[in-house]
User: Fold this.
Amino acid sequence: MVSVSGILGYGYPEASLNAALDRGVDMIGCDGGSSDPGPYYLGSGKPFVSLRAMKRDLRLMLRAAVAHKVPMVVGTCGGAGGEPHLQLVAQMVRDIAREEGLHFPMALIHSEQPKDRIRQRLRQGRVKPLGRMAPLDEGTVDRAERIVGLCGPEPYIRALDEGAQVVLGGRSSDPAPFAAHALRAQLPPAEAWYAGKMLECGASPALPKGPDCLYVTVREDGVVCEPMGERACTPLSLANHSLHENPSPIRHVEPGGVLDTAECRFEQVSPKATLVSGMRWQPAEGYTVKLEAAERLGHRAITIAGTRDPGLIGQLEHFLGEVRALVAGKARDLDITPEEYVLTIHRYGVDGVMAAREPLRDMRPHEVGFLVDVVGRDAEIAAAVIALARTSMLHCDFPGRLCKEGNMAFPFSPSDLPAGEVYRFSMSHIVLPDDPCEMFPIEHERV
Assistant:
């Protein structure tokens, strides 16, 4: 199998895909998204890569799949895998097929979940929280803008068995589309899931880091990983990739069980390829599907500023306390209550990355950048409060102040930038379905 990229739209060298095709492929695939960029994309239904980049990547994959008569599979379409994301990619595929004169059977796997289904499962006691999440309640279900389930390999296997050559999936477990193809070929689940774990991020398991296609051969006794460009998969690079997006380097929890890599052995079999063996698959007592949801909180507006005034930097806490007090008072004058907005001032150069967890607190920089962030109940409140914050940052007085004009340098005009709607992740729970495919209906069409 070949994975073209870590995410559809991140790009890859066409020469690397051609090199994989020359070697012979049984499947061309790509993981199309992630929850890493945050809840906005799931809530808004928008992609987090450019449409132009997604279409370029898809065009090369489709041409290759049709020419070589092999399946093309994309999971978590459009970035977040909701219904708008899936339909966006499906329409791109139809447009490319029309432009290129391509013909193929296509299946769409829908991952967005009706609220009634989740309420029913909740009342049946078949929804459990993950990690430190609170138990799910119906109010959280009602407030969710969009709920998706993470599809396992079974719907992909079914879609291929039913005759699809191109399979586009909604939100999925990242390795699932690749694991599905290996499982469908009757290869062992441990090797199938390990291959999926490597393939989900394109050539990220290779060194040096950079855009490339990863070529993986799944065998009865292990998995061989090799990048197609000027990179190499080494024992260290593959072992290191096991840490990717996982709380444990050796236990990877998936819908139907756990991939255990504690006994993996790594053998360099060529200058660019490494064989991994010894992985184990532990079937779960019950099949589970993870739920993700996004809930809308309001609207955001920001402003960016910086200062190199040593007097101000020397009393930063006092200064920002005065700014917050000024904003609160002026907001009250506009009949905006404290409950209607949240003001956050990120201080880059001091603790803008680590915030309260920053261990280095004794270093004084010569300049500090500020990202002032307001989340308001609506767009009007966000705009009003960010304007108050900007003027307060600019003109607030402080002891020993020498500058009688502005305290801050603003890099942009307009200085106040609306950032759109704001969402938070509201679900990280598992649901126990009756069947691995029941939550993921499959729709077939001829393109």
The CA atoms of residues 31 and 419 lie 27 Å apart. The radius of gyration is 25 Å. The chain has a mean pLDDT of 96. Residues 2-111+150-288+432-446 form one domain.
